[in-house]
Design brief:
GO terms for molecular function: DNA-binding transcription factor activity; transcription cis-regulatory region binding. With 214 residues, this protein is an all-alpha fold. It contains 12 helices and no strands.
Length: 214
């Protein structure tokens, strides 16, 4: 059991090191040598878990779709909001997540590995479909179209914010995006009860991690 736990930790160290290097330098410029230096482990240990840089990139992308911090809510639409706010809060703080976007927008890496955007769209579609079944969405709303367009908008907001000389807080930007989107999607009685505060994600994540630790 101890050996298995050690192997899991070692694999995680390599994924996090690769994510940091991919995030800072891009896929093409990243090298096994730089990943090994960042991880502080041996080449033999790396090749026990990953046979190539390509496998490391795939491993990083496998970690990209995450709902950590999400808890069941009265409204499914609130859960949809929470996933987007949590990702916006975590992404600047977790290289694994920001590296997945860097790999997704890199044409070469995207051609090799694809992206996880379809998975995010599917997740959003499932939540919005249930929200519509519960009467939380306006009649004209198509859950799949809305989810697809929102994933594109979220990604665009993140990329533009990141490129600015003084990047704005991403959670506040996504909160503002919801201010524009939700009135055209949520029924008034639900809209008035949704919390899109930029402070919400930090609280949700803290409470979730405290619950796991206790």
């Amino acid at each position: 059991m101890a050996r298995q736990q050690r192997a899991i930790r070692t694999r995680r160290i390599f994924l996090e090191a690769a994510a940091e290097v991919f995030d800072e330098h891009g896929y093409d410029a990243a090298t096994i040598a730089s990943i090994l230096e960042r991880a502080g482990l041996t080449r033999g240990a790396l090749y026990f878990h990953f046979t190539s840089k390509e496998e490391l990139a795939r491993g990083v992308l496998e970690e990209a779709v995450t709902a950590e911090g999400l808890t069941p809510q009265v409204f499914k639409l609130q859960e949809w909001v929470d996933i987007a706010l949590l990702l916006a809060y975590r992404l600047p703080r977790e290289p694994m997540l920001s590296a997945s976007i860097r790999l997704s927008v890199d044409p070469r890496a995207r051609g090799l590995f694809g992206t996880r955007w379809p998975d995010w769209i599917e997740m959003g579609t499932e939540i919005l479909t249930e929200a519509k079944a519960r009467g939380e969405l306006l009649p004209h709303v198509d859950p799949e179209v809305t989810s697809r367009l929102f994933v594109g908008a979220w990604t665009g907001v993140q990329l533009v914010a990141e490129s600015m000389a003084e990047p704005p807080d991403l959670v506040r930007e996504i909160s503002a995006l919801f201010e524009l989107i939700l009135p055209n999607n949520a029924v008034p009685g639900v809209l008035s009860r949704l919390d899109i505060s930029p402070h919400r994600a930090e609280r949700l994540l803290r409470e979730s991690r405290e619950a796991v630790a206790s």
